[in-house]
Amino acid sequence: MSSNKALTEVFAHGLGIEIVNIFVGAKRQQYTVHKELLCKTIPFFCKAFKGGFQEAKMREVYLVDENDDAAGFELLIHWLYKGVIPSIPTDCIEGEPWKVVEADVTPAVIPYHNLYYMAEKWCASLLKNQVLDEICKFHRLTGTHMHPDLIVKGFINTSESSPMRDYLAHAGGFAMEQINKRRYVSKLCESEQDVALEILQNIIFIADFSYLEDPNLKPGEEFHEVTGH
Fold it and tell me: Distance (Å, rounded) from C-alpha 63 to C-alpha 121?
């Protein structure tokens, strides 16, 4: 057996030889991925491609929800084939990091949040944990606080029991302690009233039972989901 043939067989054994197409976002950005790798890693795709659905016959899935983001999906591709989530660039901060209320959301962070929301929808716990670790690391290294807009988005796109909500509530509470509390709360309250109320209730609950400290300095497992993929 030639070395090339042997390598091909090893590669095929690990990844399979079938490929599938994933179309992401409003522009239907196309990605071609090894079916077996995707199905082994994320239960959602296993059901889609190995069940009795149209996706299995056509070998394609369309991800077109609001947070189905092409940049976020590219992070997933990197994770699938290399086993790690790329780090968020730390040289993308403009202005003074603590003036989070006045600034726009850092664009480089958005795909990571979107990937987390996709992973939550797919019940991909391991992926969620690694994405959240990278978000924590970014804020730890840059000394930045969580933008209120991202907290609002997180509460809208996660379940009540999501570790991301717990993390965001801690991050919001800590930010209020460190910067202008009134302006931070005012920014949160620009969202729908019931969302803002839920966020503030979560922050108050945490403040009542624990000292508000930087969640990005806590052990990563504190905000991890412990079961599933």
Answer: 11
Q: Residue 14: pLDDT above 90?
A: no
Q: Which three-class secondary structure state does DSSP give residue 32?
A: strand
For residues 61 and 20, the answer to whether their CB atoms sit within 8 Å is yes
Give the residues across from 33 on adjacent strands: 20
- Assigned token pair, 202: 């979560």
The reply to whether the predicted model has a pTM over 0.85 is yes
Mind listing the pLDDT tens digit for each residue in 42-92? 999 999 999 888 888 899 999 999 899 999 999 999 999 999 999 999 887
For every residue of 97-127, DSSP letters joined together read TT-TTTSPPPGGGHHHHHHHHHHHHHT-HHH
Instruction: Give me the phi and psi of 84, to 5 degrees please.
Output: -140, 155
- 31: phi then psi, degrees, rounded to nearest 5: -130, 135
Alpha-carbon distance of 169 to 203, in angstroms, equals 5
List of E strands, the chain: 19-24, 29-34, 60-63
CA dist 148 and 158 (Å) reads 16
- Which residue bears the tokens 């509530």? 169
pLDDT band at residue 7 under the 50/70/90 scheme: very low
